[in-house]
Design a protein that fits this description.
By secondary structure, the chain is mainly alpha-helical. The protein has helices at 2-35, 53-58, 64-96, 102-108, 117-131, 137-161, 165-173, 178-207, 210-216, 223-232, 236-260, 263-267; strands spanning 37-39, 49-50. It is 76% helix and 2% strand.
Amino acid sequence: MSRVASLLRASLAGVLLAAFSFALIGPLANLALWSVAERWYTPYKLPVTYGTRYWEQVFRPTGDAMASLGTSVWIAVLTVVVALALSVPAGYALARLKLPMRSLFMIVFLLPQAFPSVAIYINVARIFYKLGINGTVLGVVLVHAAHGLVYSVWIAAAAFAAVDKDLELAARNIGASALRTFFTVTLPLAAPGVIASGIFVFLESLDEFTGTFFVGVPQVMTLPLLLYNAAMGGNYQVASITALILLVPSVLFMLFIERFLRADVLAKVGA
């Protein structure tokens, strides 16, 4: 009886693992199939004709895809610069200084996630239109940075909180100023967490669609907008290739997190 129960448990575990693998890998496999499908229509379960014609179309130097990719990367880089310029001092202050209502400040940075994004971006677009920055890279960067602060401030605060204060005290005891201690001791030790927060912001900006749609269209065309247009136009090959391109930075980011970001830093997020 025990052997039957063990066999049933093993079978159930195998079925659950297979279902999880299908749910995880199935959509990626579908994207990969569509990216090389030159002809695919019902009632065929697999593409009728395979080829790389659409890959060549996407990576053509004069095509919209590469221009949109360049715009997306440029906006993401500027967003990281703006977000880190605000989150590094804010994270240090929240982690190191005795601020009144610290928990309230931490919650305030979560507020952009607490409301429907469409309603917010419609009003932001109206305000930016009055300021003359709607449909500009600056307007898109500001929207992305405001959204990215949710991640960068919390992670930066956790990174600074994980730095041993005794090391800072030792630097001060041998004559280092507060500013020199920050740049030679605190910031280098917190650098992995700060870099991780920058990568979070970069990926969030790279994948952001809603804010870019309301604030940037039609003058600013990023890769997610190109993906949306291709999918709505029925060009699933270009949409799939674009989605795979957007997937690459996320995979690289996960490898970075596994390699560099320590568990004790992650444990201090929100602490």
